[in-house]
Amino acid sequence: xxxxxxxxxxxxxxxxxxxxxALGALLVLRWPRLAWVHVPVALYGAAIEFVGWVCPLxxxxxxxxxxxxxxxxxxGFVDRYITAALYPEGLxxxxxxxxxxxxxxxxxxxxxxxxxxxxxxHETAAGGGP
Length: 130
Description:
mainly alpha; 5 helices; about 75% helix; about 0% strand; elongated
């Protein structure tokens, strides 16, 4: 029973990681210093998609499920939980590239807003803005 609970906790953590990778820049709008954590995490998450790596949390979850008497699964977290819901045929290399580009594009757009806000605040503080 402990293994199943631990596997579920890893699943929740993994889902949170994926959300943070994809949308963490929204938190940076509120807490700009969080960018120091989010940027490397987002780049790592995109790299996983571009290179085709498997996140280390996936084998951990599979191992915990097997230890708890459940069947493990093949493939990665995105394939099992996210892509399976969006693309029933499974994760393809093209889908991975689209996901990676999507992560970078969404975060780049949000960081552009962060950068503009920060620049305006500096200009205003320096007396050069409205």
